[in-house]
Amino acid sequence: MNIFSTCALEDKFQRVTRKNTVGSTNVLTISAQHGLINQFEYYNNQYASENTSGYTLLHKGDFAYNKSYSEGYPFGATKKLERYESGIVSPLYICFAAKAGVCDDFYSYYFESEPFYREIYKIAQEGARNHGLLNVPAEDFFQIKIADPPLAEQKRIAEILGCCDRVIALKKELIAEKKKQKKALMQKLLNPDSGFRLPGFTGEWRRCLISEICTIESGGTPATSNEKYWGGDIFWCTPSDISNSGKYITFTPQTISQEGIKNSSAALLPVGSIIMCSRASIGPRCITKVPMTTNQGFKNFICSNLLYNEFWYYFIDTILEDLYKMASGNTFKEISKSSIETYHVVIPASYKEQQAIADILSAADKEIVLLEQELEQQQQKKKTLMQLLLTGIVRA
After folding, report:
1. DSSP alpha helix (H) spans, 190-331
2. What are residue 73's phi and psi, to 5 degrees?
3. Treating both helix axes as pointing N-terminal to C-terminal, what angle do 151-189 and 351-389 enclose, rounded to 10 degrees?
4. Most exposed among 41, 145, 196, 359, judged by the fewest C-beta atoms under 10 Å?
5. C-alpha to C-alpha distance for 313 and 359, rounded to whole angstroms
6. Would you state the pLDDT for residue 46?
């Protein structure tokens, strides 16, 4: 196995300590997704000191290491300035620039790799009073061992990983465009006043109370102190269970027993029910593919023969703003069962028209899901390539 030779970071990079003598107001922060980005652009606020003359001035191509750990970066993040010609960062950052004969694009990827984080781990200690700020002395940081492949190989690796990034970026743009198109479709198909109607359908839409087209069931939690109520064969859903389930839900990690249902306000919902979060975050929802119960953080819809459940799944989007306005509560907002039941909606009277609308939106969803799966595969491919190329296991 022909692994890369190594050198000290200071052999390839020199420290940047220039102060903000030019009065730059472009205060930067490090973001995992966006790299070095303007604070106001990222946070919609600025957290810099009033006097920024002591901040470090970066030029495009310079690097900054943030000693604070964050999600995905347990040993801090290192990013290259690419979005702006210059900017300033907190003096707590360790800043540096590539020397001549170094491919900075290669090291942009390398500073995201496990070998680099292992070196940080060797010198990093969390200060007792720093609450997440790692104690990484600058002199130790510049002694970190980093990979030192030939310059030509650095460039080839950067080019390969750059191609991966461009494919990922294009895939993200396509997904965003497809979501935009789906939103436009929903505005046309779900609004009786849009002036758009699917071919073959005419007539007025039906105005009715929600309680006239479906039954609404609340959820409940059996007493946790009684073991007989738990571990049965009935799925029991909490809001966290639907966060990553997608449109349909087929499983929950927690289950309850028939006795648990009898001794709580939980209701057994049939297949095809729509379970919707009704407190704090109002609106996230799934369609059940198996009989299921939920906790009290849900309002659940059992559609009558007047309402196609797939149509209702999408239509809820059009009334969420009103539902949230009707919600009450100080600690967190919650919408009541009675408020939902007495809310008026206007929907197609024809069940077949509801199906036709839902079919179009379902097809749009499936296309987006496929694209998201392709994106995940591309991201995994890049991750695998980084593990192979940035360690020298595979030479470019």
Report:
1. 258-262, 309-315, 320-326
2. -135, 70
3. 170
4. 196
5. 12
6. 75
**The whole model's pTM is what?**
0.85
Average confidence (pLDDT) over 192-199: 93
Predicted local confidence at residue 126, as pLDDT: 58
Nearest one of 282, 264, 271 to 326, comparing CA atoms: 282
In this structure, which amino acid lies at residue 212?
E
Q: What is the 3-state secondary structure (H, E, C) of 19-86?
A: ECCCCCCCEEEEECCCEEEEHHHHHCCCCCCCCCCCCEEEECCCEEEECECECCECCCEEEECCCCCE
Output DSSP code: residue 242: G
* Confidence (pLDDT) at 225: 95
Q: In the structure encoding, which two tokens stand for residue 292, read together?
A: 């299921």
Rounded to whole angstroms, the Cα distance separating 351 from 354 reads 5
Cα separations in angstroms, 318 against 69, 156, 331: 40, 50, 26
296: phi then psi, degrees, rounded to nearest 5: -75, 0
Q: First vs last Cα of the chain: how many Å apart?
A: 13
Instruction: Please state which of the ranges 38-52, 111-125, 132-146 shows the lowest mean pLDDT.
Output: 38-52
Helix (H) or strand (E) holding 139: helix 138-141
Q: What is the rounded CA–CA span in Å between residue 127 and residue 374?
A: 42
For residue 157, which amino acid is it? I
Beta bridge partners of 302: 215
Cβ neighbours around 373 below 10 Å, total: 10
pLDDT tens by residue, 62-89: 999 998 877 778 888 999 999 999 999 9
pLDDT at 349 over 50: yes
Measure the CA–CA gap between 127 and 67, rounded to whole angstroms. 11
- Average pLDDT across the chain, whole number: 93
Q: DSSP states of 164-204 as a string? A: HHHHHHHHHHHHHHHHHHHHHHHHHHS-TTSS---TT--SP
The token pair that represents 24 in the structure block: 């730059």
